Amino acid sequence: MKKIILIFFTISLSLILFGLLTESENFQKYIGSGVLILFFVVFPLFSYHRWKDKKMEDYYLNSENLKKFRENSDL
User: 19: domain range?
Assistant: First the structure.
């Protein structure tokens, strides 16, 4: 999964840089496609990869988690 994310990130970054550094007619299409790949492919894959083994209940803001937070904080 990490390699796939890295490949798409490299493609996206290279398209953006190619669009910025060249003086072709279609530079806006290169930049736009790079940004689209970044936000619609790389970011969801990265988010899925980072969150796939986490329990969402640990991140809920309920009274039990607030109590744990207050016990662990130094305030």
Answer: 2-72
